[in-house]
Amino acid sequence: MWLPLAEYSLKNKVSISTLRRKIKAADIEYRLDDGKYLILDSEVAATTETHRPSLSRVMVSTDVSATVSTVEKSSLAAATESGESVITAANRLLADLKKAYTQVLQDKEVQILNLKEDISDLKTLIKVLESENDRLRNQ
Predict the structure, then answer these.
(1) Residue 44 has pLDDT above 50, yes or no
(2) Is the pTM of this model over 0.90?
(3) What is the DSSP string of 44-110?
C-alpha cells in the first residue's frame, strides 16, 4: 500500500525529514504521484525494516574512559616489554591520550555540524508548512 509521507511518518514513528533524506538517498521505496511522494508500506517492509538515522548522522557516544583504559594498557604493555623507563612510557601514554581526546573532539565537531544541518532542514520545513497553512487558510 502506498502512503503519503505524513501518514507513513505517523504509522512508523519516523520524522518526515528523515523520510525525505531516505528518498533523496534512494534508501526507501517511493513514487512521485501528482507532485506528492508516496512511500510503499507493506507488512513485510514494516516488520523487516527499522528506521534509524543514516550512519553519517548517528550520534555515537564515545566512552572516553574505555578509550583511555585501552590506550593505557597498550602503552604500559609496550613499555614493560621493551624495558623503557617509566618517564618515557608516561610521555608516550600522554601523547596517546592526547590523540584519543583529539579524535573524540573531532567526532563531536562532526556531530555538531550534522545537527546544525538537521536544524536548518527543520527550519526550512517549518517555513514550507507555515506557508502551506497560510495558503489553506486564505482559500
Answers:
(1) no
(2) no
(3) HHHHH------GGG--PPP-HHHHHHHHHHHHHHHHHHHT--HHHHHHHHHHHHHHHHHHHHHHHHH
